[in-house]
Amino acid sequence: MRAMLIANPKATSTTLRARELLTRAFAGDLEVETVETGHRGHATELGALAAAKRYDFVIALGGDGTVNETVNGLMSHGREAADRPALAILPGGNANVLARALGLPNDPLRSIAAILGALRAGHTRTIGLGHVSTGLEDRYFTFTTGIGLDAEVVRAVEEMRGGGKATNTMYVRGALRHFFSGTDRRRPALEVHDHQGRVARGLYLAFVSNASPWTYLGPRPVVPSPRAGFSTGLDLFGMRSLGVLPVLGALAQMMVPATGGPRGRHVVELHDAPEVTIKASRPMALQVDGDYLGLRDHLKFRSVPKAVRVVI
């Protein structure tokens, strides 16, 4: 069996030593070709190449951005999940949300044993994806997208890190700075349209999730949409207020998943939606799986069931 190992050399835990260990670990089971990414979007190109050349597996060694790009490359070929290489994830970023949501250890070396065992046993799981169209580009996402404050924070952290390591401290600092002096907390800009024609207006931010959690703060999951899952449609969480007390209340409920997620008169939620449209009265920041995409004012989301096979 053939595999392409797509490695991001700038990912948090990805070192030359780690890649060498990974290649040796897989050598007895797979014919592995290792390729390093060299620019933004390169993993998408490599994932598409692996699919076109009919590799059996693609192994993504990096953070959520590398995994997202790889998935978008795989989705460019074939009509069914079985037509594409299966995806194995060796987490090497800061949050590693998708890998952890699938139950993998939050470390590439600790994940080797789990992935090797699954490969030898032939275990794969087919998961659904989300898809967003902005009018400028189409993008698949594995766990979440965000419009508004969280995307502004992602943009700020990308500027702070300058291509280096992102840390939880950066995200917390960026969130506090933008909440109190960056984002517009007076003029809500978003309205949400679901597949049944229902409309929710006056939102300041929205997350559209394909899975839960939305992210991790260190070891703790942050869960705005606890019912979101890889085998259901899309979930949406939105806020009609960015006042200090409503936001603190929602965050407290997100940090304690047993509460069932945020509730209250300022919260808007959807569950298991096949399609969602979000319109903005002014361009708003957009992030997809933790990557900042720019300012957008019209977004169409759809659920893509049984899209990708993952080794797990």
From TrEMBL:
It comes from the Bacteria. Its cofactor is Mg(2+). Transmembrane segments: none annotated. Residues 1-136 form the DAGKc domain. SMART domains: DAGKc (SM00046). InterPro entries: ATP-NAD_kinase_N, Diacylglycerol_kinase_cat_dom, Lipid_Phosphate_FormReg, NAD/diacylglycerol_kinase_sf. Keywords: Kinase, Transferase. GO terms for molecular function: kinase activity. Belongs to the diacylglycerol/lipid kinase family. This is Diacylglycerol kinase family protein.
